Amino acid sequence: MSQDALIEFQQEGGIAILTLNRPEKRNAMSDAMRAELVEHLENLRRDRSVRALIITGSGKGFCAGGDIAGMKTRMEADPATVGFNGWDRQQGVHYAASLLLNLPIPTIAAVNGAAAGLGADLALSCDLVVAARPATFTWAYIARGLVPDGGGMYFLPRRVGLARAKALIFSGRRVEAEEAVQLGIADQLCEADSLLATAKAMAEEMSSGSRTAIALTKSIINRSYELSEHQVFAEGSKAQGICYTSEEHRASVQAFLDRAKEAGK
């Protein structure tokens, strides 16, 4: 692990842990940090030894959102370049969110402190969210004259419903950890000193089954709000055909048959 890394990587057994590492900036997401995040996610997508991913922040914050230095640079840039450069940057933001959303393993955000703007969106890009008591969630884009650009308009309504998502985004109000669990923004509340242990236990539980079946199930569930029931059934049929041929399924069935045979003796 490099102390200079903006994203620290650890692996404990089958669990990978990515730690946002700009504590002096409350882990604000710079372009360089996003590039490191993308590199790690692309590597994790190919690494069959990893069965689950945890993302957390170093220091007191999870992720304070976009980097102020980048905003300052945009304000000082030639107006003729701002539009295209902004569009180009957005492609990187959305690519990172899409990579995380579609990673074929369970992903867990372990939110240790403030998750604001892009930071809140990053947390919701994960399958599950564990919030320590000091954690907060804020979507204050509109106060900056911006729209939520890190996936919040996609993820938040799916977690809290359309009307609540509008209220949280329009007001930009801060949501404390306990309320976040009540609203469905987070899935579990824990004490600060047990955050990583709680996230690791969740990762172990969520990744204990067939890696093949988890990946295929996740790829369908992620799109289930947009698909008709017939499309979900069709996608499920294709996925089940793949599962029938997997080593995990065959081993599980054989173990069941062996137990039944022993019990019948």
Automatic annotation (TrEMBL):
One of its GO terms (biological process) is fatty acid beta-oxidation. InterPro entries: ClpP/crotonase-like_dom_sf, Enoyl-CoA_hydra/iso. GO terms for molecular function: catalytic activity. SUPFAM superfamilies: ClpP/crotonase. Gene3D superfamilies: 2-enoyl-CoA Hydratase, Chain A, domain 1. It holds the Pfam family ECH_1. Belongs to the enoyl-CoA hydratase/isomerase family. This is Enoyl-CoA hydratase. It comes from Marinobacterium nitratireducens. The lineage of its organism: Bacteria, Pseudomonadati, Pseudomonadota, Gammaproteobacteria, Oceanospirillales.
